[in-house]
Amino acid sequence: MNVLAVQQGTGVLQRLNLDGWLLVWLLLLIAGGLAIQFSASGGSGAVLLFQTSRLLIGFGLMLVLAQISPRIMLRATPWAYGAVTALLVLVLLIGKEGGGANRWLDLGVRFQPSEFAKLAIPLMLACFFHASRERPDFGKTLLALLLIAAPVGLVIVQPDLGTAVVIGCFGMIALLLAGLKRRFIFGGALLGALAIPGLWVSLRDYQRERILNLLNPESDPLGAGYHIIQSKIAIGSGGAFGKGFMQSSQAQFGFLPEPTTDFIFAVISEEFGFVGVVVAMLLFIAITVRMLQIAFAAQWRYSRIAAASLALGFFFSFALNAAMTTGLLPVVGLPLPLVSVAGSANVTFLAGFGILMAIRSDRRYLAR
Amino acid sequence: MATRLEGELVEPGTLVRRAIYMAFLLGVLSLVLLARLSYLQLVQHGYYAGQALGNRAQGRKVPPRRGIILDRNGEVLAANRAGFRLIVVPEQVDDMAGTLGRLANSGILKPENQSELVDILRRSQPFEAVPVRSRLSDEIVARFAVVRHQFTGVDIEGLLLRQYPLGAAGAHALGYVTAVSVEDKVGLEPERYAGISHLGKTGVERSYEDYLRGSAGSEQIVTNAYGRPLSRRRELEPEPGSDLLLAIDRNLQTEAYAAMDSRRGAVVAIDPNGGGVLALVSSPAFDPDDFVVGMGRGAFAELTRNTDRPMFNRAVRGAYPPGSTIKPMLAFTALTTGRRDAGHTIDCRGSFRLPGSRRLFRDWKREGHGAMNLHDAIAQSCDVYFYQLARDMNVEGLNESLVQFGFGAPTGVDLVGEGAGIVPSRAWKRANFSDPAQQPWFPGDTVVAGIGQGYLTVTPLQLAQAAAQLAMRGKRYKPRLVEAIRDPASGSLVRMPPIQTGSLAPQAVEHWNTVVDSMVAVAHGPLGTARTTGGRLDFRIAGKTGTSQVRALPQDGEQVPEEVEERFRDHSLFVAFAPVHDPVIALAVIVENGGSGSGAAAQVASRLLETYLAGNAPPDLVARAQ
Questions:
Q1: Of B242, B283, B324, B606, which is the active-site residue?
Q2: Three-state SS at A328
Q3: Looking at the DSSP assignment, which residues form a beta bridge with residue B58?
Q4: Nearest-5° angle of CA B369, CA B374, CA B380?
């Protein structure tokens, strides 16, 4: 049995196991992202260099992963999951402070292991449910929830609520795709609703403050509400067609906080207006649709769950960041995929695309 | 068909269905997002565009340059000096106490009063820069420049500050400016004072405020989020205020204040030919520069509590019994009305008694002056002569005379808050006394008025005006400090023409000569009351001494100045003009509790006349005066 995916085409893309459409959309998004970074950082070469280097690492990883057969991945998944969980434990032990929380590991390069969980959790669930022929019963569901809960719990105690919610959602998406029984879905939703008061109590003060601030950011215009007010000003002042490239006064003059990371979406909105963000949104939709196509075409259970989870998780990440930037959700500091300056996140997303491409190239399991 | 492999699809439909459900939910989320974006970017665009502009561009008023004040020779009396002040925008400072502490540690702020400062800053208008220290030295400006990057919301601002080179000497003539306070703003048109930091409070600064102020310009400043200006664009140039050219002679003004030597009193010198005020001094005074930057509450309280009342403008608001200084005026009226002729002689025996009254009116010279005609009565300041004259003129006659010389009404000088003095009459006494026993006008009231005592009070400015009228032989001009207003842009002058307010018996040349001659004799005659002073001068002046009682002394018992408490000693007065023909200066000097008029006041007056004539009279004029 050939270890590598079967190469059927003769073009360069086929030989490299790359999906043409996905690659085109990704390159467009990344090119646009780098341009907006250049503007948001005030023409800083250092920011651009950092971002480019991380994206190149991600691309390299994507190319490598695209060559690996999903069957190898299936076998490697538990190890990868274990490794990521171990790294998360390590973060708690020797992590670096960053913004009041222990999120970073410095092993020669600084990285954020919680980002890797965005890949590890759905893959682990895909692996877990790969062999199941029925919808997961109570025991399996519970085990799956534990697989999600372990890394999520480790991230919560860092504390990094935003990332914990996102990786938890990645896991839940995979669980739903694996055929979680309806009564568990509704039961869980009910339990979740009941748990909200308890959750509220367990939140840290600054997290609660952020949520309260969403409801009325003007209540503290120079304190906690400042971020979101300035972000809305940036977006709103962009208007229909934007102020033009490099013309974001909110970012250039320092009013918009975190313009290269959490609030890069506001910079896009300010410089390219409504038209610009709609184009950006369409790019994210195009990427997601292509990923779902690949997922649906895959014939292997592991591949389908993994690919569909990553597709939905990718768009979910985008939507979450956009919703926070526009003031629809509390700001918890999440990157805009492939656009924000966020090394670990971008490398992880690109690695995910590598896995998608490997799945697509796994012709042997494609039906029809 | 290949064998069924591990992981082969069991429920292909479930996953697709579930994925599509979730994609649908995400689609709904995207639509919400789209709605939100169109609300922010399309519906609310105008609002947020304004907010973004407001973020970085702030409209700011540009203060105009306040008009400067110059003396008659172009010497500067009030100027604007570029200064720096430290400002704080409280909203941009996270930790106010800490910031102020660090500023103090860097030697930029004084370490004391920190908590008071924090309080003031907390109560300030939102987003308004609050000046926390004015008049920064170059050293402090340099020191701040080094650490500026460490302070958000703290900056140094350049501005023009008023400066008064004369200091206290000019305080009551020029007045001063103070920072516009919130209280001031209530009474002012807010638009006109937007961007104006100071306004004139007293003196010329106040009465010519509308000319001096100018109007503010405006500019847009683009700042970054830390409040640092990135660029500025002028929208409207500020219009500088007009400059004032005063009649004041800087040397004379300074000399007058110095001559007063911190004694209580006032000096007013007038150019009789036109009414220009050459010097206007009230002593003691205060340093007007202190008001420009603002003084502490303690220092201000001290100024107002001071029993010498340095804030009180004695020159225009003081009310003094004129004493014998009014004798020449009364004598002139007596001559023109035929009540006396120059040859009429009386025998002065040192006191005067009204028929049927036991009350004795003493002459200042106990043994009496002997035979006195009008000329000698003025030169030697014989009281008995004027007791008699007053009785003969009666209160109505006295009043007519005094009003003709400008007493009892404000002169109309271009200063705010001028006093009118009191020329008492029967009606006045009825209206101003509540005790019915005091209300009638008694014959004795008339008698003491004849030597400028009793209810009669005058301001030093009125006295100087009357002296000028004597000098001009009846012609009276409204006193004025400002002679011309200069447009700062074109440099063109608008001169204020002299305003003649009186012309008293110009045809009575002989009577004028009689009175003026007697005034010359005051200073230069063998028995003139100011002969000591006059004898030292190398030119001739016309003058009149005055000694006014602060309170009535006991009928019997001698007044011994050394034994009388200082504040109950007589006021010393002197009026004079020079040269005797073609006079260029007339003045009035009052030294409170200075004793006899021939002493303190005459000395001040002669020193000033010397100063002024040495500098201003053409040589032939001085020669002619001799």
A1: B324
A2: coil
A3: B221
A4: 40
Selected for mutation to probe chain B from A226, A227, A229, A235 (highest B CB count within 10 Å) is A235
CA nearest to A250 within chain B: B52
Enumerate helices (H) and strands (E) in chain B, giving the number of each. 24, 23
Which sequence spans correspond to the domains of chain A?
16-363
Helix (H) / strand (E) containing A267: helix A264-297
Strands (E), B443-566: 475-477, 482-486, 493-495, 500-503, 542-548
CB within 8 Å of A205: residues ≥ 6 apart: none
Token pair for residue B248? 């004041």
Enter the tokens of residue A33: 């992202």
Hey, are the CB atoms on B7 and A234 less than 8 Å from each other? no
Coil vs helix vs strand at A27: helix
ipTM of model: 0.90
Q: How much is the average pLDDT of A123-127?
A: 94
3-state secondary structure of A308: helix
Interface probe with A: pick from B16, B37, B92, most Cβ of A within 10 Å: B37
H-helix or E-strand containing A94? helix A70-94
Contacts of A238 in chain B (CB under 8 A): 41, 45
Active site residue B282: no
- Token pair for A230: 């300035």
CA distance B90 to chain A (A): 12
Residue B4 is predicted with a pLDDT of 44
Query: A312 vs B22: CB contact, 8 Å cut-off?
Result: yes
| Mean of per-residue pLDDT scores for chain B | 86
Q: What is the pLDDT of residue B626?
A: 42
Q: Among A60, A33, A61, which Cα is nearest to A47's?
A: A33
pLDDT beyond 60 at B186: no
pLDDT at B193 over 70: no
Round to whole Å and give the CA distance between B216 and B64: 5
Report the alpha-carbon distance of residue B366 to residue A129 in Å, rounded.
133
Q: How far is A26 from chain B (nearest CA, A)?
A: 19
Nearest CA in chain B to A288: B23
pTM to 2 decimal places: 0.66
Ramachandran region, residue B472 (left: φ > 0; alpha: ψ -120 to 50; beta: rest): alpha
Of B7, B15, B37, the CB nearest to A130: B7
Contacts of B23 in chain A (CB under 8 A): 288, 292, 312, 315
Give the distance from residue B85's alpha carbon to the nearest chain A alpha carbon, in angstroms.
26
